[in-house]
Design brief:
alpha/beta; 6 helices; globular
């Protein structure tokens, strides 16, 4: 089912999303990958304020290529999400509502998604040039020294994603395997 959502996300919207839904996100989302996650985790451990509030927000695991002339951003494909798993439960406990990446998540992250009424989206890997067309603007807001791994604020318009893990813990990957096995 196609759904159109505004970011940041509210609890009621998250509760309506189901594994397998095609979602088009409009609003503000943030990028962060391994190095930025590590720095934000260190800040939380020290009791310091993060460069962006996690409350209700979506983090896109992505490091873009340089923007071509006239474009807001270069290729903007997703990074493998499991690399962020060691930080994710803490971020979800601090208000993060959504994540966009590719690939599976750990059982610990799935449980934290359920506990915190959050959602994990997948973007299509290998389609970074197409995904970048939904990004209206991009600005670095933290950790500029990290280059492509700096935290960016993105304005997106109908950014396409698929709900992989919904707030009830339903996992599209597991559902697809089960459906495949039942077909034999």
């Amino acid at each position: 089912m196609d759904k159109y959502v505004k970011a940041p996300l509210g609890d009621e919207i998250v509760k309506q999303l189901r594994a397998g839904d095609y979602v088009y996100i409009t609003g503000t989302i943030y990028t962060a990958r391994d190095a930025a996650h590590k720095r934000m985790d260190e800040s939380l451990k020290k009791g310091e304020e993060l460069p962006v509030s996690l409350n209700g927000n979506i983090i896109y695991y992505m490091g873009p290529s340089p923007a071509r002339e006239g474009r807001a951003i270069g290729s903007a494909g997703p990074t493998t999400a499991s690399r962020m798993d060691k930080y994710t439960t803490k971020f979800l406990d601090n208000g993060l509502k959504g994540m966009i990446g590719k690939g599976r998540r750990s059982e610990e992250v799935v449980e934290s998604i359920k506990k915190n009424n959050a959602v994990y989206f997948a973007a299509v890997g290998g389609a970074g040039a197409l995904l970048s067309r939904s990004i209206i603007s991009s600005k670095i807001i933290a950790y500029e020294d990290l280059g492509t791994e700096a935290v960016r604020e993105l304005q997106v318009d109908n950014f396409p994603a698929i709900v992989v893990i919904d707030s009830e813990g339903n996992d599209l990957y597991d559902m697809a395997v089960k459906k495949y096995k039942e077909s034999f």
